[in-house]
Amino acid sequence: MKKFAVAGIVQVETIVKVDSIPIEYSPVITRPDTIFTNVGGDAYNECLALRALGNDVRFFTVTGSDNTDIIVKDKLVSGADYVFPALSANPSAVIFYDTNRRQQIFEDIKDVRNIVYPIEPFRKNIEDVDCVVLANANFCRPLAKAAKEAGKILAINFRGFSEDKYEYNRDLMELADIIYLSDDNIVTEPDDFVRKVADNTSAGIIILGQGARGLTIYSRKDDLLAHYKPVKTTEIVNTVGAGNSLFSCFLHCFVESGDAVHSIKNALLFASYKIGHMGTSQGFLTVEELERWYHLIWS
Question: Which of 199, 204, 215, 251 has its C-alpha lying 20 to 30 A from 70's C-alpha?
């Protein structure tokens, strides 16, 4: 069991399954079992996944002063190591997804860009962790510096990244040991884009999630740039959170083994199984189940 510190945004998410994106207009669509509302967010999902794999996870987040019932009563949020109630209201999002694993997200993150997160509780709680996992939210910038000053492995999920936002994310990219991005807004060829990020940072690992096309991974230590197709363990039910699951499982395996290829193969399995379930807190393989799937698919 390894120790992780995870920091990022928690939000109320409404997930809606649609036939295809872009959505064809219709005034009313009635379809059973296609709308799901719960607590979510990248950091929230990553924390759940890492704990499901048996890790000790310390959670740091921000909440709103509106005391949204679903968030206040959530066990993960109420049990977080440090919750900073600094927002005017809790963030929320509506996420549409289709069977081709495309997503369209409408989000309201309130005033999260303006808050300054208390650094001392964070410093104190990362002294003995193996890895710090952050979002690229503005309030995580000082946390990233604190993690590097403490000599921790720093993994950052660059949510909503696009090539025109490179300068905004540059400082975090230069600090990160492990970088995760999605190709949703990337126009450059995947290999060229990942190589560009590698050339402009010192990150040892870069993962570019590519949805239904799989992913591209770069490992500096192994001089590896490789594409992996997705694997199938079950039928697709809900693709929201697939990237968070993949990133979390990779970190779980990589912090333990240092083997990028072994870790990314496990991560593909873990994410594949997760998208066969609707709920945010459902569909996580245990370590034992992950091992069995690994031998079945990859051996």
Answer: 251
CATH superfamily for 3-297 is Ribokinase (3.40.1190.20)
Taking only the tens place, the pLDDT of each residue in 84-136 is: 888 989 999 999 988 887 888 899 999 888 999 999 999 999 999 999 999 99
The Cα 66–Cα 230 span in angstroms is 40
Integer angstrom CA distances of residue 109 from 63, 69, 127, 137, 140 = 10, 17, 30, 10, 15
Cβ burial 16-33 (10 Å sphere, 16+ → b, else e): bbbeeeeeeeeeeeeeee
Render pLDDT for 230-245 as a digit per residue (tens, 0 to 9). Answer: 999 998 888 888 999 9
| In the chain, domain spans | 3-297
DSSP 113: G
> Which residue is listed with tokens 């036939």?
19
